[in-house]
Amino acid sequence: MNDLGYDYSYGGPGGFPITRKYKSDVKDGLGAARINSSHDEKTENYIPGNTNSSNVEKTIKSRESLLRNVLEATDDGIAFFDINGTIRLSNKRFREIWNIPNEAEIGKNYLEAFTKYGVLQLKNASEVLSKIQNLSGPQGSNSDLLYFRDGRIFEYYLFPVITDGILKGYVCSYRDITMRKKAESDLQEYARELEHSNELKDLFTDIIRHDLMNPAGLVKGFVEILLRREFDPDTTEKLRAIKRNNGKLIDMIESASKLSRLEAISVLEFKETDVGAIVKLAIQSLGKQFRSKQIVLEDNATGKYNAKTSPVLEEVFVNLLSNAIKYSPGGSRVIVDILDNGDEWKITVTDSGEGVADEDKPFVFERFKRATKASVKGTGLGLAIVKRIIDLHGGEVGVEDNPEGQGSVFWVTVKKA
């Protein structure tokens, strides 16, 4: 009988000891209390062939079978060695990990077993062995990674088993984390690539802001100077075409730069403002465009609409109104409304343009997606800017058919203050 109160025979299946008798006032080698105290009391006077003794023996065997099944069912390798360093239990998975023959190391010293099997397989064997050798007392638990020479990576946990304040031994478990580590490595590599991609994007944005805008601005200036001179009609028309297309180029550069800056922002600073006042600022900034196409702007937002907003919200209404001007026929009407939508305001811009086909509605707020192939063409970024700003405000965007006839109703929502 050992210091745990067991008599062991190591011929049991799976390398597990078969208990012949035990003391009633101790717990088992893994620190588990006895399940049935009435049976414990009877084991002190265990007599082979006695009915009560037979019941106790059946209970013992049942518990041993349960323990074996639990240990064998896990994917982790598990071993238990006592205070003297003698291996008392090990499951099949443990032996598979270390290529230990069945039963070969039961009753042997764990340091000897590790030296015999572990050192040959591990890249970091000396480091792990040093930690194990320094174990002492109940606080001697530790964990680390095992790097096998064949590329496998295991995580091991070594922790003490304490019964009634007395150290009885250690349980060591081994878990294969090769795939997890590979996934972590892949994720880290992806993060590095993403960081590099962001650096390239920032570089491209700087090129857009400075290196492209400067020559486009020069072209605009020289074309305007040339248009003030007298040329034949054909030359004048060509200069005007250059001016129009250069203007589109400038708009595209500015839009791409705005969208890039917005996508780099994760949080905006908000303050309480009147959404109606912001809409009116956008309307005023586009007054010349409205007049040039003789479009009537009907502003029905006459109340006060307090919301938590950022100054960039004005860009939303500038883009929506600008699109309404582009795609509406001359002499038509554009309507702006702000509706009470529960805990948010719903701002709508209604035009009389060509409308948006149902199949195109889900895509019009994506970059470079435009629903129409009409002669008036935008950069494809305006509605993407709208969506990004509204997303940062925690709102939603959408487009519907004009209920009064031809055209569309573009809408956005912002939370009330």
Description:
The structure is a single chain. By secondary structure, the chain is of the alpha+beta class. The chain has helices at residues 37-42, 51-73, 92-98, 110-121, 125-133, 178-227, 233-263, 275-285, 287-292, 313-327, 382-392, and strands at residues 77-82, 87-90, 142-147, 153-163, 166-176, 271-274, 296-299, 306-309, 333-340, 344-350, 397-401, 408-415. α7 packs parallel to α11 (382-392). It is elongated. 24% of the residues are buried. The model is unreliable at 1-46 and 372-378 (pLDDT under 50). It is found in: Membrane. Its EC number is 2.7.13.3. Keywords: ATP-binding, Kinase, Membrane, Nucleotide-binding, Transferase, Transmembrane, Transmembrane helix, Two-component regulatory system.
Topology summary:
Blueprint lengths: L36 H6 L8 H23 L3 E6 L4 E4 L1 H7 L11 H12 L3 H9 L8 E6 L5 E11 L2 E11 L1 H50 L5 H31 L7 E4 H11 L1 H6 L3 E4 L6 E4 L3 H15 L5 E8 L3 E7 L31 H11 L4 E5 L6 E8 L2
Parallel strand pairs: 7-9
Antiparallel strand pairs: 1-2, 1-5, 3-4, 4-5, 6-8, 9-10, 10-12, 11-12
